[in-house]
Each structure stands twice: as C-alpha cells, then as structure tokens.
Amino acid sequence: YFFMNKIRKLFYISICCAFVSAIFYSVFVYYHLQVWMYQGPDAKFFIKPGESFSRINYRLQKKGLISNSTLFYRMAKLKKLVTRFRVGEHTIPAKSNMVNVITLLTAGPGSDISITIPEGKNLYEIGQILVERGVLENKQEFIQLAKNKDLTDSLGIPSTTLEGYLYPDTYRFSKHTSSETIIRKLVKNFFNKVKKINFKNTKLTPHEVIILASIVEKETGAKFERPLIAGVFHNRLNQKMRLQSDPTTIYGIFERFDGNLKKKHLKEKTPYNTYRISGLPRGPISNPGSASIQAVLSPKKHSFLYFVSQNDGTHVFTKTYKEHLAAVKKWQLNKKNRKGRSWRNLKN
Questions:
Q1: Residue-wise pLDDT tens digits, 3-23
Q2: Cα-Cα-Cα-Cα dihedral of 10, 13, 15, 20, to 10°?
Q3: Of residues 204 and 112, which shows the higher confidence score?
Q4: CB-based contacts of 195: which residues, under 8 Å, 6+ apart?
Q5: Helices 206-219 and 290-297, interaxial angle, to 10°?
Q6: Pairing of strands 43-47, 88-92
Q7: What pTM was estimated for this model as a whole?
Q8: Are 163 and 262 in contact (CB under 8 A)?
Q9: Could you say which of 6, 98, 160, 262 has the lowest number of CB atoms within 10 Å?
Q10: What rounded mean pLDDT belongs to the chain?
C-alpha cells in the first residue's frame, strides 16, 4: 500500500509539473509571437533569389527583427511557409511582432517588379526591357550570357545562343536578380509551355520549327495571319525559293542597325540574310509565342508565295510574282496607301 501511494504521488507530481511546464511554454511562445515587438526604426530587409529559409531566419535574428529563430522556424513550418518567402526588398515597421514579420515576408509585396516580355522580342530587346524596368543595371551581361554556348548546352538547347527559347510572358523579378537566374526562368517557362506541343507532324526539326516560328512572329502581329504566313514560308521552302524576309536581314545586323533598312543591307551576306542565303537562317531571330509555333506546325494550306503589307498590320497574299509586283505598286509605292515604311522604298 505504501509503495502504491508513493507511485500515485509521483504520478500526480509529474502531471502537475507537465501542466506547469506547458503553461510556462505557452506563455513563452505567446510572449515571443505576440508580446515581443521589434523596437528599432522601420527596417529594410532584402531576400535574395534562391536564399534558403535558414539563412533568412539567421539574418532576421542577427538584425534583431525577430526574438527567437527556433520559434520563428516552427511557426513557418506549422503554417507551411518555409518555401513561401518572397524575393525582394521588404520594409519591416517598428513594433512588428514575429507574426507580423512572417506575414509581411510571405504575403507582402516586397519589391518584385512585374515585367511583360512581348512576343517577338529578341534577346537584345529583352535585355533592354530588363534594364528599363530596373531589374538589371547592364544589359551586356545578359546578352553575353544568352550567347554563351556552355549555358545553351547545359540547358539542352541545340544552338549557339538562347534566342528563340526566352519565352515571352509576364514575370516577376526583384532588383539585382542575376542574368543567369532570369535566363533559366525564361527557358524553363519555354519548355513548360511547349511540352504538350507535338513537333512530330512536320519534316522540320524542333529547332527549325522555332526558327521559322520566330520569323512568322516578326512578320505579323495579326494572330489570324500567322498560319497564312507560315504557309507562304513552307511553300517557298518546298519550292527551294529563298525566304526573302526583312526581319531576318535586320537581325543579322541588329547591333548596328539604326532602324532604316537599306538596299545595301539586303545585299550584305550574313548567316541571317534570307535574301542572300537559301533555306532557314542560322538560328531564331526572336522569341515566338505558342501561337506562332503552332502556326508553323499547322500552316494554312494554300498556293501563296508572296505577301505585302497593307500598312495596317495585315498583308495582301499573292501567288505569282506579277501579282506581287501589282500589290507592291498599290500598297508600297502609292503614297496615298502607304503610311508606313518598307524596304520597297529604300535609300541607296
């Protein structure tokens, strides 16, 4: 009996100790999560792309922005927020508690910059967009990296540059994001977008499809025309005719092009000048969207071999060179109809 009574007392004491400990721990947790507050002035806290939670947690405690890194981790894990911290610059206000801090860093806006890369932009233009929007300070690093053969090989791209594979879309980046991080995100998006596209119903290789789609993308902004223009280029390729595409010529001299296409440019032989070379150019000349890729894979069946701009974003399609010349006379040489500029009105 004495022995059993002693066991009961020990049991009750253990229960009481556990209960008291639970109360103390609850008070401890409540204090650090709700009562404790950051007492300094409003603080800037920058989360770098790819930064781990442990590093973020360490820096927060070191700066005095949280009171207990262990509790901060447990709270983040409980709320399933460990991988949800937003890249960018955040402002942590004075008198923020740890709940405020984790909410701010995972749901707050940070300094993410929304960037839309339109269909048909090339790598030079994308670099400029990134600079203008404040993500990059110098576009040359981006351009050089996009032309790095080791990087293209590592990404599984059969080309000497990433042109054609920097998928046009809307992205969010923070300031000081590295060029490589940006490139990898754009290329990853490309492969995600095209993985359901069937590239087998054509004689062209997948890379050749992207090359031709990049030309179609530059030739028209009218969505309904893409299959028509793709059909023209397929017809010319099948008949061993040169593509004679202005955008390919421009791309070959893009870094020194002043916006005025001249006859001398059409005569200059580059790996991209389809007035001087047969077949497709060396590589893509822009970054096409899915619609242009699909247009190349499912072109409109017709007998057209030529098209001329009507100066309103659309084109006139013709079957013979004679019809083509008549269309040029009407839409490019007639001042009344001509509102834009074409190579048919070039300077010598």
A1: 566 666 666 666 766 665 666
A2: -160
A3: 204
A4: none
A5: 110
A6: antiparallel
A7: 0.73
A8: no
A9: 6
A10: 88
For 225-252, how does the pLDDT look when each residue is reduced to its tens digit (9 = 90+)? 999 999 999 999 999 999 999 999 999 9
